[in-house]
Design brief:
This protein is of the alpha+beta class. Helix content is 18%, strand content 36%.
Length: 177
Protein backbone atom coordinates (compact mmCIF):
# COMPACT_ATOMS: atom_id res chain seq x y z
CA UNK A 1 0.00 0.00 0.00
CA UNK A 2 2.68 2.52 0.98
CA UNK A 3 5.57 1.21 -1.11
CA UNK A 4 6.25 4.65 -2.61
CA UNK A 5 6.06 7.78 -0.47
CA UNK A 6 7.23 11.35 -0.43
CA UNK A 7 7.86 12.50 3.10
CA UNK A 8 7.75 16.18 4.05
CA UNK A 9 8.10 17.95 7.38
CA UNK A 10 5.23 20.39 8.02
CA UNK A 11 4.19 22.74 10.78
CA UNK A 12 2.40 26.01 11.57
CA UNK A 13 2.67 28.47 8.71
CA UNK A 14 1.52 31.96 7.73
CA UNK A 15 -0.27 32.71 11.00
CA UNK A 16 -2.14 29.37 10.90
CA UNK A 17 -1.82 26.35 13.15
CA UNK A 18 -1.27 22.98 11.50
CA UNK A 19 -4.85 22.04 12.40
CA UNK A 20 -6.15 25.17 10.64
CA UNK A 21 -4.06 24.35 7.57
CA UNK A 22 -5.43 20.80 7.45
CA UNK A 23 -9.00 22.14 7.66
CA UNK A 24 -8.28 24.65 4.86
CA UNK A 25 -7.02 21.77 2.69
CA UNK A 26 -10.24 19.84 3.30
CA UNK A 27 -12.22 22.92 2.22
CA UNK A 28 -10.03 23.31 -0.88
CA UNK A 29 -10.77 19.72 -1.82
CA UNK A 30 -14.52 20.43 -1.68
CA UNK A 31 -14.02 23.27 -4.19
CA UNK A 32 -11.41 21.76 -6.53
CA UNK A 33 -11.77 17.99 -6.05
CA UNK A 34 -8.13 18.05 -4.89
CA UNK A 35 -6.08 20.16 -2.52
CA UNK A 36 -2.72 21.83 -2.93
CA UNK A 37 0.13 21.48 -0.46
CA UNK A 38 2.72 24.18 -1.15
CA UNK A 39 6.44 23.86 -0.65
CA UNK A 40 9.74 25.41 -1.71
CA UNK A 41 13.38 24.42 -1.91
CA UNK A 42 15.61 22.18 -3.96
CA UNK A 43 14.24 18.80 -2.89
CA UNK A 44 11.36 17.15 -4.77
CA UNK A 45 11.03 19.58 -7.70
CA UNK A 46 7.75 19.01 -9.64
CA UNK A 47 9.30 17.25 -12.69
CA UNK A 48 11.05 14.77 -10.38
CA UNK A 49 7.84 14.25 -8.38
CA UNK A 50 5.95 13.57 -11.62
CA UNK A 51 8.60 11.04 -12.74
CA UNK A 52 8.59 9.32 -9.33
CA UNK A 53 4.79 9.02 -9.38
CA UNK A 54 4.72 7.74 -12.98
CA UNK A 55 7.26 5.04 -12.07
CA UNK A 56 5.08 3.95 -9.14
CA UNK A 57 1.99 3.96 -11.36
CA UNK A 58 3.75 1.57 -13.80
CA UNK A 59 4.08 -0.80 -10.83
CA UNK A 60 0.36 -0.33 -10.00
CA UNK A 61 1.27 1.65 -6.89
CA UNK A 62 -0.08 4.94 -5.60
CA UNK A 63 2.23 7.49 -4.06
CA UNK A 64 1.31 8.97 -0.72
CA UNK A 65 2.58 12.24 0.64
CA UNK A 66 3.45 11.68 4.29
CA UNK A 67 3.36 14.85 6.37
CA UNK A 68 5.52 14.73 9.49
CA UNK A 69 4.67 17.39 12.04
CA UNK A 70 7.58 19.54 13.09
CA UNK A 71 7.63 22.57 15.31
CA UNK A 72 8.01 25.65 13.20
CA UNK A 73 7.71 29.38 13.40
CA UNK A 74 7.89 29.95 9.65
CA UNK A 75 6.01 33.08 8.66
CA UNK A 76 5.61 33.83 5.00
CA UNK A 77 5.80 37.39 3.76
CA UNK A 78 5.48 36.38 0.11
CA UNK A 79 2.19 37.18 -1.63
CA UNK A 80 -0.67 34.85 -2.34
CA UNK A 81 -0.31 32.39 -5.18
CA UNK A 82 -2.77 32.86 -8.03
CA UNK A 83 -1.38 30.77 -10.92
CA UNK A 84 -0.06 27.28 -11.52
CA UNK A 85 1.60 25.24 -14.24
CA UNK A 86 1.66 21.50 -14.88
CA UNK A 87 4.85 21.77 -16.96
CA UNK A 88 6.69 24.83 -15.61
CA UNK A 89 6.04 26.74 -18.86
CA UNK A 90 2.31 27.36 -19.40
CA UNK A 91 0.49 28.98 -16.46
CA UNK A 92 -3.20 29.33 -15.72
CA UNK A 93 -5.26 30.82 -12.90
CA UNK A 94 -6.69 28.67 -10.13
CA UNK A 95 -10.46 28.30 -10.63
CA UNK A 96 -11.22 29.12 -7.00
CA UNK A 97 -9.52 30.11 -3.77
CA UNK A 98 -6.51 28.14 -2.56
CA UNK A 99 -4.49 28.48 0.65
CA UNK A 100 -0.98 28.83 -0.76
CA UNK A 101 1.51 31.44 0.39
CA UNK A 102 5.23 31.71 -0.07
CA UNK A 103 5.59 28.51 -2.09
CA UNK A 104 7.35 27.77 -5.37
CA UNK A 105 5.66 24.42 -5.94
CA UNK A 106 2.71 22.39 -4.74
CA UNK A 107 1.84 18.74 -4.35
CA UNK A 108 -1.63 17.85 -5.70
CA UNK A 109 -3.54 15.45 -3.49
CA UNK A 110 -6.78 14.29 -1.98
CA UNK A 111 -8.14 12.40 1.00
CA UNK A 112 -5.96 13.86 3.74
CA UNK A 113 -6.18 11.78 6.88
CA UNK A 114 -4.35 11.26 10.12
CA UNK A 115 -2.74 7.92 10.79
CA UNK A 116 -0.68 6.63 13.68
CA UNK A 117 0.99 3.58 12.16
CA UNK A 118 3.72 4.97 9.90
CA UNK A 119 7.37 4.06 10.50
CA UNK A 120 10.22 5.96 8.84
CA UNK A 121 12.46 3.03 9.74
CA UNK A 122 10.94 0.85 7.00
CA UNK A 123 11.93 3.12 4.09
CA UNK A 124 15.00 4.02 2.10
CA UNK A 125 15.67 7.29 0.31
CA UNK A 126 15.29 7.23 -3.48
CA UNK A 127 17.57 9.39 -5.63
CA UNK A 128 20.21 11.99 -5.02
CA UNK A 129 23.48 11.60 -3.20
CA UNK A 130 21.74 9.77 -0.34
CA UNK A 131 20.10 7.16 -2.57
CA UNK A 132 19.26 4.00 -0.60
CA UNK A 133 20.15 5.61 2.73
CA UNK A 134 17.71 4.79 5.53
CA UNK A 135 15.01 7.47 5.43
CA UNK A 136 15.20 8.05 9.18
CA UNK A 137 18.89 8.98 8.77
CA UNK A 138 18.27 11.18 5.74
CA UNK A 139 15.51 13.39 7.21
CA UNK A 140 17.72 15.23 9.67
CA UNK A 141 18.54 18.84 10.33
CA UNK A 142 17.54 21.03 7.36
CA UNK A 143 16.50 18.18 5.06
CA UNK A 144 12.72 18.45 5.02
CA UNK A 145 11.55 16.37 2.03
CA UNK A 146 12.46 13.07 0.43
CA UNK A 147 11.37 10.45 -2.06
CA UNK A 148 11.34 7.04 -0.42
CA UNK A 149 10.48 3.42 -1.10
CA UNK A 150 9.61 0.71 1.37
CA UNK A 151 12.36 -1.82 1.93
CA UNK A 152 10.73 -5.25 2.46
CA UNK A 153 13.79 -6.44 4.40
CA UNK A 154 13.08 -3.86 7.12
CA UNK A 155 10.40 -4.68 9.68
CA UNK A 156 10.46 -2.02 12.37
CA UNK A 157 7.44 -0.62 14.10
CA UNK A 158 8.57 2.74 15.42
CA UNK A 159 5.14 4.07 14.61
CA UNK A 160 4.62 7.81 14.61
CA UNK A 161 1.54 9.96 13.95
CA UNK A 162 1.49 11.52 10.48
CA UNK A 163 -0.95 12.95 7.98
CA UNK A 164 -1.27 11.01 4.74
CA UNK A 165 -2.35 12.43 1.38
CA UNK A 166 -2.95 10.45 -1.80
CA UNK A 167 -1.09 12.21 -4.63
CA UNK A 168 -3.08 12.52 -7.86
CA UNK A 169 -2.20 13.68 -11.37
CA UNK A 170 -0.37 15.91 -12.14
CA UNK A 171 1.12 15.08 -8.68
CA UNK A 172 3.08 18.37 -8.38
CA UNK A 173 2.85 21.79 -10.00
CA UNK A 174 4.82 25.02 -10.34
CA UNK A 175 3.36 28.16 -8.74
CA UNK A 176 3.53 31.93 -9.21
CA UNK A 177 1.78 35.04 -7.91
Amino acid sequence: MDDYVIVMKVGPHSHMTLEEIIESKKEEEKIHGVHFWGYSGVFCQPAKVQDFCKKAKKENQKVHLILLETKSNYDSSIGYITQYSKDGIHYENFKGPVQLQGAQFSFVGKNIKKRSDFSLDNYRTVGGKNDNKPLVDHLKFRVNKSFAKKDPSLHYSNDIPVFEVELVEPYAIWLKE
